[in-house]
Amino acid sequence: MPRPASPARPLFAEVVDLLRASGCVFAEEEAQLLLSEAAGSEELAAWIDRRVSGEPLECIVGWAGFSGLRIAIDPGVFVPRRRTELVVSEAVALLREDLAVGGRPGIVVDLCCGSGAVGVAVASQVPVRELHAADIDSAAVQCARRNLAAVAGQVHQGDLYAALPSRLRGQVQLIVVNAPYVPTDVLPTMPLEARIHEPRSSLDGGPDGLDLHRRIIGDAPTWLDLTGRLVIETSERQAAGTAAIMGAAGLSAQIVYSEELDGTVVVGAPRLK
User: Fold this and answer.
1) Pairwise CA distance, residues 28 & 1, whole Å
2) Percent of residues in the chain assigned helix, strand, coil, to nearest 5
3) What is the predicted pLDDT for the residue at 5?
4) pTM score, two decimals?
5) N or C: which terminus of the chain carries fewer CB neighbours within 10 A?
6) CATH classification of 82-270 is 3.30.450.40, yes or no?
């Protein structure tokens, strides 16, 4: 008895139409990726259904493009955004400046690391002595461990600095952070794929979006060395607030905005006494 024929593989235009009808802004790019990554027609059909239902593309294919790298992404883990590449570029520039004046590779910490994308991207572009990453979410920690293995980084689970080895106090050259900074009352306006498929803990920054910034910045001087830096992502609207928190913690603050990436970071440094 002949076997039933496999379902025909959808054509590119058909996939684009399905994605566009569901609200995908970059339907052509997403269709191309789905078609190139799916192992066969059945997997492709399942992936299209998942994407049409609002699941992030990166969770479906299992990776995200970030700073020229493929970062493994597991379901339920925060997907790194392109704007966060500004954290990486600023961090790399600072580390390269230190090396240029005779400094040595130091210790880098990626707080609220999610998939570990920021730490991996930094360590892939400039030498570091040690790379540590931390997140409170167990799924994120497991995902980050897969990614940081490529750069011999260590991942710790826990609440911000409490997750880190105590020996790092006062020894950290650079802290990079993409902590939640969305105000709680703005969460309902976020895209469906973020609200439904990413953990609320990776988005909700409290009433003004800066609750985690206060905690991270307030304790940063305890962990940074004398010339250490803190690079933290924020929004253009909240940048002044993040910078003010740095000032109150005894750190100088510089706001950096990239129009190309639509990203904003604040760079903090201990004030020289």
Assistant:
1) 40
2) 45, 20, 35
3) 37
4) 0.90
5) N
6) no
Cα 221 to Cα 193: distance, rounded to the nearest angstrom? 36
A 10 A CB-CB count for 257 gives 12
**Nearest-5° angle of CA 233, CA 249, CA 244?**
55
Residue span(s) of the chain under CATH 3.40.50.150 come to 82-270
At which residue do the structure tokens 């439904």 appear? 196
- Find the radius of gyration of the CA atoms of the chain: 20
pLDDT tens digits, 104-119: 999 999 999 999 999 9
Nearest to 228 by CA among 69, 130, 109, 65: 109
C-alpha torsion angle, residues 58, 87, 135, 193 (rounded to 10):
-30
Span 215-233, mean pLDDT?
97
When pLDDT is averaged across residues 213-222 and rounded to a whole number, the result is 97
Q: In 3D, which of 204, 218, 223, 225 has the Cα closest to residue 251?
A: 218
Tokens 């002949």 belong to which residue? 2
Structure tokens at 14: 């058909």
Q: What is the pLDDT of residues 242-264, one digit of tens each?
A: 999 999 999 999 999 999 999 99
* Burial (CB count within 10 angstroms: exposed 0-12, middle 13-18, buried 19+), residue 58: buried
| C-beta separation of 144 from 115 below 8 A | yes
What's the pLDDT tens digit per position in 69-104? 999 999 889 999 999 999 999 999 999 999 999 889
